[in-house]
Amino acid sequence: MLGVNANTVLRALRRLREDGLVEFRRGRGITVAGSSPRHTVIVVQARELLRLARRSGYRREELIRIIQELP
Questions:
Q1: Three-class SS of residue 3?
Q2: Which residues lie closer than 8 Å to 17 by C-beta, 6 or more apart?
Q3: Is the pTM higher than 0.70?
Q4: 30 phi and psi, to 5 degrees?
Q5: Can you give the pLDDT at residue 53?
Q6: pLDDT for 46
Q7: In the predicted model, what is the mean pLDDT of the chain?
Q8: Rounded CA gap, 24 and 29, in Å?
Q9: Residues in the chain with pLDDT < 50?
Q10: Is the distance from CB of 13 to CB of 29 less than 8 angstroms?
Q11: Do residues 43 and 19 make contact, with C-beta atoms less than 8 angstroms apart?
């Protein structure tokens, strides 16, 4: 109807879910996440940090250790 490829829309929705902005609920559809904007920003940034660490060869456990050792 809008002339947008369904795969593009699904990929965008999955990304929004990964970033904590929307929630997929069986039988209720997709809703905007209820968390505070501040919390959402932290989650988005933490996911990006994890992606960067993985691209650099770090595992999640190593990243957690690094963060815990910060002052």
A1: coil
A2: 23, 24
A3: no
A4: -110, 130
A5: 94
A6: 87
A7: 86
A8: 6
A9: none
A10: no
A11: yes
